[in-house]
Amino acid sequence: MELHPPGGPVRSLKDFLVHLGIVTLGILIALGLEQLVEAHHRSKIAAEAVAGFHREISDDEQQVKEVLASLPQLQAKIKEAIDLVNSATADGPITYPGVSLDVISTASWDTAIATQALNELPYQAVSRYAGAYGTLRLFADEEQAGLSAWQNLHRFGTDPKALGKEQRSALIEELRRYDSALMIIELAGKGTLKSCDDALK
Hints:
Layout: H1 13-86, H2 107-115, H3 123-153, H4 165-199
């Protein structure tokens, strides 16, 4: 089977250049269309990433607010427990404070990194979102530290009369450690809320 260029055989340099120009123009058009499709696809991924950031950060922000709202009650219970353990005539059981722990999601951010959607966003926007997710991770880490301090409380039991002097001192120290962890969670939470608000502007 023979292939013939359109318009007949090439008979002169001029015909060759015309055919070469047509082929080159066709290739350039195909490459340009491919780039347009790719740019549209990247733009769509970036828009989906931003929408995901806003949903996720809003949800995470609400969880942080719920944790912060529960802290005064937990701190009041810590004070009650310390007063009970310090009391020489304690006759009731030790009521340990609870724990407030929420799962902070970063799936949208992790997906945007994996798909390189951040490359399509302005630097300032990426910086704001990175700040919000960074403080959310810090907040989650502090919650984990608070959970560890909370778990250490329960090894002393609930009967203050069964505790010796050293055990009472150790329990009070653990209660204060948990109180300190809650204060750090509160500080981290306030910073997290600010960076989340900045990211959602």
